[in-house]
Specification:
Radius of gyration: 20 Å
Strand content: 5-15%
Structural class: alpha/beta
CATH topology of the largest domain: Rossmann fold
Largest sheet: 6 strands, parallel
CATH superfamily of the largest domain: NAD(P)-binding Rossmann-like Domain
Distance between the termini: 40 Å
Number of helices: 14
CATH architecture of the largest domain: 3-Layer(aba) Sandwich
Shape: globular
Length: 335
Amino acid sequence: MKIVVDSALKLTRGVFEPFAEVAYLPGAEISASDADDADALIIRTRTRCDATLLDGSQVKIIATATIGYDHIDTKYCRAHDIEIATSAGSNARGVAQYVFAAIDALGIDPARKTLGVIGVGNIGSIVAQVGQSAGFTILQNDPPRQSREGGDKFVMIEEVLENSDILTIHLPLDSTTEGMISEEFLRRIKPGATLINTSRGEIMDEAAVVKAKTEGQIEKLVVDVWRNEPRINPELLHAADIATQHIAGYSLQGRARAAAMAVRAVARKSGIPGLENWYPEGIPASRPNPDISWEELTVQMPEYYDIMKDDLALRADPSAFEDLRNNYHFRPEFF
């Protein structure tokens, strides 16, 4: 049995060696010849899994240590009986921590402020819950959930855009969301709002976002995800008040959960015993505190995460985007 693993997923090293041949390779460099005789791939977003990579291979499962899977051709995989396992939910608390670190760093106080959450899945749910406890008025938009659940928990996108002082985006990338943050979208937001995108860069029309920021329609801009990563848009970098290298979800516990989910999925599919409850040694479990107050959050934040260090590192050398991401010092979660 052969397993190909993205070499950036360091927590998985040594786990499968007693059972399989394991090849650790940079995610962007995993090729068809590498996948050809592999039974399983453990990857991140940098590995594009489609016919070019997979045709003629014996791959039976692709486990991605990410919540999204837009880098995987799902139609191809279904047609060729290749299982896809994601790590959905693994980084939710890490992203929530990033969002509130950004809000704190921008000097925004929750008093009389409305936080609009667009996309209320694993991440958006935590952001909304913590935001409410911290004192924000919360507006939530998630049409699929609204359709399933009904009630008045969710509101239409127009209400979120027109009334939110802060907009935070937590959407998957698909045909309905690509380019969603367009000129029209930005014209409809409350003037002077703060925009935070930690989902996917392709959701934004970057030129439209730069224009909205330059003209003052957006007062503050936080960007963690970019089109054409790692070759990021210098105009968007300049326009952003906080800019980081696609690390919003890079918490220590999120990293551990993602690795565990990928390892367990491959072990189950491959019939490897003893790994059904595997979790990396030495990493403490999360301490969820959904009722944290704004005062508690802001007092504790400096101990756990200085978001401006990430901003400064990226601005110092944007060409080092991938190195900064691959060699990131994962931060602990505290709520």
